[in-house]
Amino acid sequence: MTPLCRPSVRVEAQAIRNSFIIKFPISDYSEAKTAVARKAFIDDLRRSNIPFSLPLNYSCVVAGVNIRVGEAYLPKIRNFPSVEHINTNNLFVLKKVSHHQTRALTNNNNALPQINHDHTGVNALVSAYRLTGKGIKIGIVDSGLDYTHPAFGSCFNTTNCRVRYGYDLVGDDFTGMNEPVPDSDPLDRCNGHGTHVAGIVAGNQGQFKGVAPDATLGIYRVTGCVTASDSSDSTTSAVIMKALQMAYNDGMRIINISIANPSGASTDIDAAYSQFLVSKGVVVVSAVGNEGQFSLWMTGSPATGTDVIAVGSYEAPTQYGYGISMTNPTGLRPLMRSAPQDSTMNFSFTNIQVLRGKMASGALTACSAVTTNLKGKIALVAQGDCMFSIKAANVKAAGAVGMIVYSSTDDVLTPLGFDSPVNIPSVRVTKTTGAKLVELITKYASFRISSTEQLMVLTNPAQNTVSYYSSRGPGVNLDFKPNVVAPGSYVYSTMPTNMGTYAVMSGTSMASPYVAGCVALILQYLPGENRNSVMDLISEHAQILFNAGYARSLTPAIQGMGAIAMGSIFDDLRLRTSITSRMGDLETQGVLPGYQSFSVTLKNIGPARYSFTSSYYRSIQLSPYSADKNLIMEPTITDKYLQLVYVNSSGKGTLNPRTANLFQVKILTTEIASNSFTVFGGYLKYEFVTGGKSYDRWLPFMGMKDYLYKVPILPPPTAPGYPTMGPATKWPSLGAKPTYTMVGTDLPYFGFIQIFNSDLVLIYIAATSSTGAVTYQLANLGYYTFYRRSWDPNSDPYYFQWDGFIVDAVTMDPVKVPSGTYAIQARWLRPNRSANATDAFITWTSPKFTIGWSS
C-alpha cells in the first residue's frame, strides 16, 4: 500500500514514512500531567496490539510524542480517546544559497568588521545607548556551534562563558531518516551553518562584533555530520520541536530558527509550537526560506506562526565580496565578481588586459573556436548558448589565462558550474557589470584589471531590494509574511576553525539572526516588552525599500514592513501606531461596493501634544495566476493607482496627550480585476511633530479583492499536474486501465500537484450498487493532514495508490472490498474552511475501473 507521498527529489518538504507527531487532549502541559496522558496513549496502543516506538516525548510547551508506527494503524490511532491530533513528521533541510560563499578564510587574528551595522543603524543605536545584549538569553536552533572559536570565548557551559547552554539532539550520523543519538555536546565541526548564524547574533572578536556581542547563547544542534551528501543538513519537525522545548526550559528569551519548511501555514506543527512559545513570552524569530523564484505563498514554517517574526533578506548598499579593480583606466570603483568555479582555482591577476572573445561568426559567447588572439589575457564572454566548460575550453585554446562570463540578469552571482573540469580560472559577473566591462573595453584600447582572492567592501548594484532568493509571501491567510527584511546577502561571519574561521554566506538564514540580535538590544533597553510591542517598534521604524530598477520589491507581500532600521528605534517611545483591523480578503471585509477598508490607531502615551500629517505610497499589485488559473512562477506585476480615502479624517490633525485616535481608511479597488486573486497593498507614512522635532512612522497594508477560499488548489484540467490516473510520463506505471488484477504493481492510482496548500486531503472509494446508488467510504490510508503546494508546475507529483481496502467506519480497521467496479474520489479542503462546511472541499473523481482479485 502506498499513501500520498512525494518522491525525494527535493527533500525540503518530504513527509517521513511511518513517523508522526501525536498531540494529547490536555491543556496542562506539565511533566506530571503529560506523563499521565502518555501512559493512556501507550495503553491504547497496547490494547490494540499496535507495534510502535516513541523516539521523543514532549511536555511543558505541548503534550505529545513522536511515534514510529505503521501508517496502516493511523485510522485506529486517530480514533483513540488519548489522541487530539496527528501531524506528519516532515524532513527538511538547512537550504544554503550558492549565491555567494567564500572559500575558507584563515584571518582569525584579524577579523573584519560587520559592515551591515552601519546600514541598519545598529552602530548608531549601540553608540547612543551602550547596548550589547548583555543579560539576554538567545537560543539558536541550527547545526550547532564551534564554541572553540575565539569569537565565542573558546568555551562551553562553564562559569562566565557566553555559550552557557546547549545540547546535541541528533548525533553526528543523523540524516533525518534514522533515529537520533543525542548527547550533551552541540559542537559544530562539519557544517558551519549554525556557527555562521551564531556569529551574526553574538560573535565577538576584535573588529568583528555580532549584533548583540554580549548576549548569552543556548545552542541546540538539530543536524548531523553526514558529509557525503546533502543529508548532513537534514532535520525533522519532531527534532525541531524538541529543541524548542529545551530552549524554553533553559530560559531563552529569544529563539532564532534559520530553518524553513517551504510554503508553510500557521497550522504546521512547528509553526503552531513556536506560536505557543510566543504566548509564553518567548520572542521567536525565523527565516522565511530561500524559495523566491517559486511565486507567492512560499513563506516557510515555522515563520508562518501567527506571531513568529518572519524574516526575509534584502540587499544592503555595500557587501563583502571578491572584486575586479580597474588599473587602466584608474579611479573607478571596483566591481563585484563571483568566486572561481572551484576551490582549486584562484582568479588572481595584476594589471592584465581584458578582451572580448569573438567567434568567426562575430558572436561573443565563445561556444565555438575563438578567433581573437587572447594570449596572456582575460576573455570576457556572454552567458548562453552552451555549457560554461565549452566556453572555457575555447578561450583557453585561444590563449586566455582567465575568463569572465557576464550574466543575462542582475540577480544571480553564483560561481560558474562546469560539467567537466577546464584548467582556467573563471568567474561570473552580473549583467550590469558585464555592460560596464564592455563599455570600458570599447573605450580603452588596453583595458586592464587586477583581482585577488581577498575580500573587499564593494557597492551592491541591487542595493535596497529584496534578495531574489528570499521567499515571497504573503502568508496563506493573507498575513504579513515576511514581517521584516534584514541583510542576508554576502554576510561575513564566523565559521568552524577547521573550516576557515570566517566566511561570507547568503540566505534568509543570515537575515533572521540579525533580527534576533536586534530584538536582544531592544529587550536589554526595554526588558518588560513582549513580542507584540517589540514587533510594533520594529515595524514602525522599518524603512520601505524603493529601487526603481527592481519593482517587485515594492510590496508588503515581499518586503513586509520593510528593512530593519534600528538607529532611531527609541526616538520617541510615547508614540505608537498600528493597523488595528487587517484588510484581508472579501470574506474578511464583507462585500463592499468597490472598496476595502482597514483601521489605523495612533496612540500617544506621553504628556506632549503632536501634530501629524500622512502620506500614501502605493505599491505594485501581484497576480500569481494565469488567465486559466494556473500558478505562474513570476507573478504578473501591475502598477495601477488605487485611490486611498480617509473616512472620518483628512489624514492630518492633532494627537493630544494620553489619547488614541482611530481612523478608518478605504482603498478603492475598482481598478483590480475580480477573480484574479491579485494581492495589493501600500504604505502610510505618518509624520509627527512636537517641540520642533519630527518623528516618522510607517504602516503597511495588504489585501485581496477576492475570496481566499476560492483560490485554486489544483491546476486547470488542461494543465500538467491536474489529477490523472496513472500518468506514465511522471513515474513508472501501467497507465490508466479499465481493469486491475491487484497483483504486484497492477493497482489503481492517480497523481496530482497542488498550487495552493490544503489542510486536509481525503481519499474516498466510490462504489455503485445494482440500483445505481453511489456510496463513499474512506480509502485505507486515505486521510492526510496538511499538504503543501507543489514547488512549480513541473514538480514531481503527489500520488495515491489504492490497495483495495477501505476503513471500517466503526472499528477503524482496514476492510478488503470485493471485486467490482469503483472510482476514486479525492477531496481537498479549501483555505479558511472547516471540514463540515457545505463548501469545504473541492473534489475530483476518477474514471470508473474494475478490480478483480486474483484467487
From TrEMBL:
Keyword Membrane (UniProt): no
UniProt signal peptide: none
PROSITE patterns in alphabetical order: SUBTILASE (PS51892), SUBTILASE_ASP (PS00136), SUBTILASE_HIS (PS00137), SUBTILASE_SER (PS00138)
GO cellular component, one term: extracellular space
Pfam families (UniProt xref): PA (PF02225), Peptidase_S8 (PF00082)
Biological-process GO terms, alphabetical: proteolysis
Presence of keyword Transmembrane: no
Bilayer-crossing regions: none
Molecular function GO labels: serine-type endopeptidase activity
Active-site residues, as the UniProt record annotates them: D142 (charge relay system), H193 (charge relay system), S509 (charge relay system)
Domain Peptidase S8/S53: 133-545
Keywords, alphabetical: Cell wall, Hydrolase, Protease, Secreted, Serine protease, Signal
Domain PA: 365-437
Annotated InterPro entries: PA_dom_sf, PA_domain, Peptidase_S8/S53_dom, Peptidase_S8/S53_dom_sf, Peptidase_S8_Asp-AS, Peptidase_S8_His-AS, Peptidase_S8_Ser-AS, Peptidase_S8_subtilisin-like
Similarity comment: family membership: Belongs to the peptidase S8 family.
Name of protein: Peptidase S8/S53 domain-containing protein
